[in-house]
Automatic annotation (TrEMBL):
This is Methyltransferase domain-containing protein. Residues 46-160 form the Methyltransferase domain. It comes from the Eukaryota. InterPro entries: Lys/N-term_MeTrsfase_sf, Methyltranfer_dom, SAM-dependent_MTases_sf. Belongs to the methyltransferase superfamily. It comes from Caenorhabditis briggsae. Gene3D superfamilies: Vaccinia Virus protein VP39. SUPFAM superfamilies: S-adenosyl-L-methionine-dependent methyltransferases. The keyword Transferase applies. GO terms for biological process: methylation. One of its GO terms (molecular function) is methyltransferase activity.
Amino acid sequence: MSAPNEPQSFTDPAYWKNFFAKRKSPFEWYGDYNSLSKVIDKYLKPSDSFLQLGCGNSELATQLYDNGFHNIHSIDVEPSVIADQIRKNKERPGMLFSTGDAANLTMADGSHTVVIDKGTLDALLPPSASEADKATVTKMFDEVHRVLASGGRYMIVTLAQPHITEFWIDHFFPLKQYILRVQKIENKASGFPMPVFCFIATKMRAPMPNPLPLEVLRSSAIRTDRIGDTDDLKDAIKAEQELSQFIYLCSKKLDVEVSIDFHGEDPALGPRYRICVVDRPEKTKIESFAAFVVPIGRDAEWLFASPKGRKALSSQCGRDRLVIVFLNRNQHYEKEMDEVKSDIGHFVGMLDARNSDTGNYEILSVGGVDVKRTISSGRSEINGGWSVEEVTVDERQYRRLVFLNTMNLIQSEAYLKISKKKQTVIDLDQLACDFHRMMIGSLALNHLQPLAKIDTRCRMAVLGLGGGLLAAYLLRNFKKARVTAVELDPEVSKIANSHFSFPHSDARVQVIIQDALVHLQEVAGKPEEEKYDVIFVDVSGTQNAALQCPPPAFLTPEALSNMKNSLKEQGMLSLNLVTRDSELGKSIKKDIAEYFPTLYTVLSCEDVNEVVVGLKAPKNSLKAVVPQKLMNTVRKDLGSHNEVVAAVSNIRLVD
């Protein structure tokens, strides 16, 4: 017989009479003694006097007795169940079973040092509980308080649904007479994946002047964590429930990547780890398994930060399942990689879906816990926290501007080089960002042919300065170009000048601190000679949104119209588009084509970045584009020549 269809049936004695009549075998929805043994060993003693509320046909009392706990009194509302329990335990002297109502106990005040409730609270308080149901539970809690001795423990085994957790906390916490503890248990007896918790309320001799502690023992934790307030306790329970669901989800082959945040002791610091699980799609079952720890400073790279990159990493590691572990910059890892491995070892082992119980697997990495060198950091009123960092990847040095409030998004990336004076400087002649090289490659479609001629006169706008690397590259590689960089955040402009050697004193560059959409509106109304030959849209949006670049405001009819009208008659738009939704990408390109009838795209070899190139001229007025011919026009002295040529080869007409 299964669980009732209606929550109210849980509180109906007739339901349970029918249930136990049809199900003769012991029923352990919430786990047996083995599941509960860690909690029992920690909080209960053989000398304790037990009262079990709503015993049903569970064998918990029998198992407790056989493990040395002999003073046990169990009650239930169903007489036939009590009769069966008496019959099965007749050879266990001292065990007592009687018909009784948990809301109307007959025991004396302070007569028991332990009260156990395994599922009874959940049965009496369904999600749609009536006021009568709530009154019954309140009366049960009051009765438990009465019969529980000072120092006694009220242990509830529960699924900890939000309404249950809230009702328990709201009743016992204000009394200031109970230490409330929560511990998740591994329920292997029931055969279903719902996470089960133990709520332990320890009774003090008298109410205290201040609220008593709240504590939680998290999955795989060695010690109990003290919780700041009741909301934090509820959040901790919810996080453990999500963790259980995640582990269950990963118990079989995954079709898509899944991820979860793994929290530590201090919620204010954010997640201690972020876990991504990647299964190789060509495999039908998991036969090889490993974990990979991504060092701080490498976390925003394509190989680790994008789903496509993580798939490539899984293939490189040669594992059917790879658990990728991201660290948190706000957390402290005292013993470097050894501590991380110790921290994650048990949890990662639970994600091993191989059909073996060896528990042996490798934890891989590409360095220590933190491989970055922080040059500077601060906080912007617009973009939040930022950090300028240096890392070495494959023996090449990089300097990066990282925004810390968007999953550590790399906003700008530059190569470092050794100058003639043997100093480490920013290499402004080369482009480290793939999509910047794609944007430069898109210039092969411009009628002025700037990739072929170093002295091409043209007016270019860069919307979104970042570290200033794209604008600086344009100035150094196109000697007669005039560049206007538009940046909303004045702090970003200061960072570009101070840490990325932006050539702000060059007479050919103008930096405007302004909303780029306002700037476009202003330029759209100017004479032809004051408009642009090329507009580069390099503006980041929300990292976790379906559309990451540009922000949606840059794709409205008004914004696209202003882009078109800010360009000269033969002008060109080059827009960095990042979305993991292919249908959304198609829709966006269709919208852009309403204003730019000739549309091309430059595809990335790596991530989901693509550069959308819009020309104002109609399709039938232009010659057919042959990428091979365009590649041959790229001059040899151009910075990042080979990468730009590769980008040109990936130019495609959008139908």
